[in-house]
Design a protein that fits this description.
The chain has 345 residues and is α/β, with parallel strands linked by helices. Helix content is 35%, strand content 20%.
Length: 345
């Protein structure tokens, strides 16, 4: 959403409904966005904002673009565009939602994966506008590194009898990747290391420290809360990229547990890292199995396809080149064209 606001602010007056400028600043730094022309204004979509006041405020706008949480807003702007960045199954729209839907000019999604669920739930034909991803690979020597980049996030937290918080399942399946890599090391893989570059929020810091103990005694490193430039350095060093979100989940019931698109996968590929990622969610729209990387469905397949690369330098170099070339379509120019065609309606 900040990418959309940044682009439109070049030729339009843009208000961004959000209270905390630090949130927007962090996103702009992560994705190298210029937010200098964006007006940060009171969030009229806050649950505490009076309904009638929201309606009145919305009248001031030629167009409003909203990121949906699965619901639809009731507003009176001239145009309304609704964006979905993840699937929302089993919404079961009621009469009220159907009436709100009449006010929406266009629904648009970040991937075909998301679109499939949104179209089914809302009975619409949404558009797909892929995120704009700027590749900033560094010209440095590749190393024997398998990389994963993602937020450390637990699916649920309970409190045990001792009063200590206990995590139940990591959302990005980083524990699964650690398990697979440890098995590869035990079975003879040498001179390779696994690096997990993760962002960790303060609330889950203690849980993360416990999680790290799984990697003790193995060539596994953690890079925590690194800045954008530091991430591009490790992307550029890595030869292989792993992603496992959605593994072991019932993705028909809970599609939100899969990767909705896969920005980090595209970034890694842009830097020449060969993806070996789960055959689920938006990853299937990025990776063509055997052409620019590998898709897998079981841990045995993950290990097997990774070993194909560690044991065959020529194959790794070939797929590395194809990976970097194939993600050029997820560029800013195509993103801008998509946004232009959206707001011109």
């Amino acid at each position: 959403m900040v990418s959309i606001a940044e682009y439109l602010s070049r030729s339009h007056e843009v208000d961004f409904f959000w209270e905390d400028r630090d949130d927007i600043k962090k996103i702009s730094e992560r994705f190298s966005l210029d937010i200098s022309k964006i007006n940060l204004v009171e969030n009229i979509f806050s649950p505490n904002y009076p309904f009638l006041k929201r309606l009145k405020k919305s009248l001031n706008y030629d167009a409003i673009i909203i990121l949906s949480d699965g619901s639809l807003p009731m507003i009176l702007s001239k145009k309304l565009f609704v964006h979905f960045q993840q699937p929302f199954p089993n919404i079961r729209p009621n009469i009220k939602t159907s009436l709100k839907k009449l006010r929406v000019n266009i629904f648009f999604c970040n991937s075909k994966f998301t679109k499939d669920f949104i179209d089914k739930e809302f009975s619409v034909n949404s558009r797909v506008i892929y995120p704009a991803i700027e590749i900033k690979a560094k010209d440095i020597k590749k190393e024997n590194v398998i990389l994963h980049v993602g937020r450390f996030r637990v699916k649920d937290v309970t409190t045990n009898v001792s009063g200590t918080n206990k995590a139940i399942g990591d959302y990005k399946k980083q524990g699964i990747m650690i398990k697979a890599f440890k098995e590869m090391i035990k079975n003879g893989l040498m001179n390779w290391k696994l690096i997990l570059a993760v962002s960790v929020n303060e609330a889950e810091k203690d849980i993360f420290q416990e999680f790290k103990k799984q990697a003790m005694g193995f060539p596994i490193e953690f890079l925590v809360n690194k800045k954008n430039d530091e991430l591009w350095e490790i992307y550029s060093k890595a030869k292989i990229y792993w992603h496992a979100s959605g593994f072991g989940e019932d993705l028909e019931k809970h599609p939100e547990f899969a990767e909705h698109f896969g920005i980090s996968t595209v970034e890694a590929m842009g830097a020449g890292a060969v993806p070996v990622v789960i055959n689920a969610g938006g990853q299937k729209e990025i990776v063509e199995d055997g052409e620019n990387g590998f898709l897998w469905e079981s841990l045995e397949e993950l290990k097997e396809k990774t070993l194909k690369l560690t044991n065959n330098e020529a194959l790794l170099l070939k797929l590395s080149k194809f990976a970097a070339d194939s993600v050029k379509k997820f560029n800013k120019e195509n993103f801008y064209k998509g946004i232009d065609s959206l707001i011109s309606k």
